[in-house]
Amino acid sequence: MKPEVEKLVFTEYESDNNFIPFMAESPFGTYYIDYDKSEKTYSSYCQYDEIGIDKILIKAIQRVNDFHRANVLNCLSWQE
Questions:
Q1: DSSP H or E run through 59
Q2: Distance CA 80, CA 10 (A)
Q3: How many domains, in total, are found in the chain?
Q4: In this structure, which long-range contacts are made by residues 32-40, counting pairs with CB atoms below 8 Å and at least 24 apart in sequence?
Q5: Cα–Cα distance measured from residue 71 to residue 6, given in angstroms and rounded to the nearest whole number
């Protein structure tokens, strides 16, 4: 049975430029989503990888949570 991985909670930060940044912290690192106002896209990434580009914030959050869950489960390996 695989352990349950808690979902990330993103916080929106103020910005004076063309991007609206969102950030979530986990024990495995910090995850980012940037909304590009001119392109109207959400670009997600972490310190060590680009995660993806989405048109809707909910989809970007789901993509990052899936990526995070995979990272956690890859780190937790046990043999039967």
A1: helix 57-75
A2: 35
A3: 1
A4: 33/57, 33/60, 33/61, 33/64
A5: 12
> Is 47 part of a structural domain of the chain?
yes
Contact call for residues 24 and 12 (beta carbons, < 8 A): no
The distance from CA 25 to its chain's CA centroid, rounded to whole angstroms, is 9
Provide the residue-wise pLDDT of the chain in tens; the chain has 80 residues. Answer: 667 888 999 999 998 899 999 999 998 889 999 999 999 999 999 998 999 999 999 999 999 999 999 988 887 765 44
- Domain span at residue 38? 11-73
Residue 6 lies in a domain: no
Residue 41 contacts residue 52 (beta carbons within 8 Å):
no
Side chain identity, residue 36: D
Considering the domain boundaries, does residue 2 fall inside one?
no
Instruction: With respect to residue 61, please indicate whether it lies within any of the assigned structural domains.
Output: yes
Length of the chain: 80
